[in-house]
Amino acid sequence: xxxxxxxxxxxxxxxxxxxxxxxxxxxxxxxxxxxxxxxxxxxxxxxxxxxxxxxxxxxxxxxxxxxxxxxxxxxxxxxxxxxxxxxxxxxxxxxxxxxxxxxxxxxxxxxxxxxxxxxxxxxxxxxxxxxxxxxxxxxxxxxxxxxxxxxxxxxxxxxxxxxxxxxxxxxxxxxxxxxxxxxxxxxxxxxxxxxxxxxxxxxxxxxxxxxxxxxxxxxxxxxxxxxxxxxxxxxxxxxxxxxxxxxxxxxxxxxxxxxxxxxxxxxxxxxxxxxxxxxxxxxxxxxxxxxxxxxxxxxxxxxxxxxxxxxxxxxxxxxxxxxxxxxxxxxxxxxxxxxxxxxxxxxxxxxxxxxxxxxxxxxxxxxxxxxxxxxxxxxxxxxxxxxxxxxxxxxxxxxxxxxxxxxxxxxxxxxxxxxxxxxxxxxxxxxxxxxxxxxxxxxxxxxxxxxxxxxxxxxxxxxxxxxxxxxxxxxxxxxxxxxxxxxxxxxxxxxxxxxxxxxxxxxxxxxxxxxxxxxxxxxxxxxxxxxxxxxxxxxxxxxxxxxxxxxxxxxxxxxxxxxxxxxxxxxxxxxxxxxxxxxxxxxxxxxxxxxxxxxxxxxxxxxxxxxxxxxxxxxxxxxxxxxxxxxxxxxxxxxxxxxxxxxxxxxxxxxxxxxxxxxxxxxxxxxxxxxxxxxxxxxxxxxxxxxxxxxxxxxxxxxxxxxxxxxxxxxxxxxxxxxxxxxxxxxxxxxxxxxxxxxxxxxxxxxxxxxxxxxxxxxxxxxxxxxxxxxxxxxxxxxxxxxxxxxxxxxxxxxxxxxxxxxxxxxxxxxxxxxxxxxxxxxxxxxxxxxxxxxxxxxxxxxxxxxxxx
Length: 854
Hints:
The protein is built from 35 helices and twelve strands. The protein is α+β, with helices and mostly antiparallel strands and 854 residues long.
């Protein structure tokens, strides 16, 4: 028989001290009841607090205001006759003899002094455990757990029975006898086997062949048999709802189902409000109050059509002073639900990223309503979707980080800390995406340079939308005439928007709205120019009416008169015609590249197409001039450029000519074309080439997979070897052979002109991954590289909706959780949160049933 070592007095005193410390602990958070076994490795459980000093989370966020109620109708409840009782003590401080009840099946984590509740929770979790989750150890020689120890054989040697009482604890690396651990302390003469001790039978020096005779001795022990019988009786009572306490078990089961349905409704309301960026709380916390906020208001509305919810809310209304009622409507429980749902979505994103392996990081920053610098961190990866049976490019939100520092090294450190906190290995990073700020994209001290020092494979790809915007901004500053044109566009908006009367006149005449210019908003210029260009006659009529009917100050009258004269000039009409076409072409390409589902090759092809369009516009001066002339004729404007654009040009005199000077006169149209139109178009064309050179280099680097089917055999090594050398962690020399093979069969096997993602999915559908495995890796890495930081800008749009003026005191943790539920609302709809509800309802079932009976 296995006997445990006799404990010394010091060990007994130490264990007694540990038991006393555990008795002093007991207050746990609601999130404790959601802790699954799989979560123990990813999240740290909150430290227990004293039951007499249970401090709720720091209240934050929305519209503050304490609840002052009469008649006991506040959802915060009452205790001992006092109003506004917060159910934190009832919901978040589960004081049950000072223990945290885990839904784990590791006997090494059980407390030394077990209670009936501990045993029931352990037996229930053990009974519902999947057979595949049973972990069996190896002995000191590394041999796996033998079958002859897992089963006991009958005397005939042909029948065997599984030893279901033996289990292994990973936390203590020991074997345990389940029934003896649960019930031996109730025996007068318990088994002295080490399998029955709190530390178990340690595996450090165990050899299986020595255990062959010891297991039968233990299971034939009388104390073990009594404990085994009690274990099975309790299992039947808990799982089959039979036994002496069957009525209580039936009541608990009924309450569990009822509470599960109720909590599901509360969770659905939480997800509904969060996905639509709506505030939860109001000025009061009282039911049937129009100022109690969206959360309670929505529950009240649903209760009209839901008997279960109506019954629960009616109990809250009818609650008497001095009674306790667990209702789960308080603000702290709302915060718990929001935090738990946000964490669940985050774990799903991290699991997707782990399966995808390669990722890119995207970062951007903006100040919020409370003047806090919010840095958004996103990741981009290519994941395999089982729903569509395709590979998909995915950009996911990670976190809003309150970080006000601006240097490249500080921001890079912040990004690394965020990735490290989420358990993401920066070694798997294959791309970076930031705007064109010097602190972000600088080659020496920028964020991208600092990340490259840590991981040379993290290729930097500048934001295409931001780069394209800079092309337009610089073109608008190429000449005084162009700068004056955009200045007048902005002044026109300022004039009409300064007065509701003037704005009404403009709306009446044109039927559309004006927009102001912005150097940072990507679509602001086309939105500002288009209404004026398309409704120029109506704009002039609106200016006329303002001058004749409105009471204007001298400055406003001068402004209106000057704008009218400017827009009735042929110069303005020509510039409106030119810039409408230029900005429309840029905006069309901008819309495409802002999508989070495209790869860099799509960006490069769109920029090449835009360059060709700009060259065509540059060569089409005559057609643009004819179009402007037609518009000028319709509004009675002489199609002539201002005289300041005409100039005298001295013609070069040759040696055999007389000294008499001869002059050549250039027309005003020619001067305007050369000094204004050509200058702006050349600036656009030149900037498109220089600013997108990095993109062209990346596309050229991956030409082995982008030009497959078009590469000659002699050029295959030259396009494959650079990739093999750079991505030596991911590729081998076999990549070159795969490219040769794919290049040979591409025309006969795949459709023409496939995109990188399309080629990846085509290989997947034909189940050719085994022969083109490294080609698929390169395709995934290429599709992972970011195109724009538009995903960050979309996150900032959500930020302004979530953290607005009335919710400016919101805490950072709640902001991140609400942003996760809002930004990733599509993912949240696909997730199943019922396991959270089931665990929570099961833990609270007995307490709800007994508490309400009083």
